[in-house]
């Protein structure tokens, strides 16, 4: 990974509504790149800001996908990396539980 690749990934993620595919080891590569002693401070700070923006954009899309999934809408999870897939599964479970607990009293009243 290098600075240009990171910028390109963020730009691509920003320009599309859908989650873009990343290599499964992308987050490991990102951490290794940001920890590289060869980076000077300005480049490191810029790279960290770009990485934060990219991760935030992906998290927003993952939350949206999880929300759709919890509402039984079709979703495409193929672009998720392994860490993102674990987060996604947790989010869907949490959203489904919330929906069930929130709507349960209304359903009980309707069935009486």
Automatic annotation (TrEMBL):
<protein>
    <submittedName>
        <fullName>Uncharacterized protein</fullName>
    </submittedName>
</protein>
<feature type="region of interest" description="Disordered">
    <location>
        <begin position="1"/>
        <end position="21"/>
    </location>
</feature>
<feature type="compositionally biased region" description="Basic and acidic residues">
    <location>
        <begin position="1"/>
        <end position="16"/>
    </location>
</feature>
């Amino acid at each position: 990974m290098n600075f240009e690749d990171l910028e390109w990934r963020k730009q691509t993620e920003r320009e599309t509504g859908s989650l873009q595919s990343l290599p499964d080891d992308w987050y490991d590569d990102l951490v290794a790149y940001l920890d590289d002693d060869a980076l000077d401070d300005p480049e490191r700070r810029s790279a960290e800001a770009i990485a934060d923006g990219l991760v935030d954009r992906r998290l927003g899309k993952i939350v949206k996908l999880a929300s759709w999934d919890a509402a039984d809408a079709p979703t495409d999870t193929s672009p998720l990396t392994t860490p993102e897939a674990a987060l996604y599964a947790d989010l869907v479970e949490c959203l489904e539980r919330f929906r069930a607990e929130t709507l349960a009293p209304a359903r009980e009243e309707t069935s009486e």
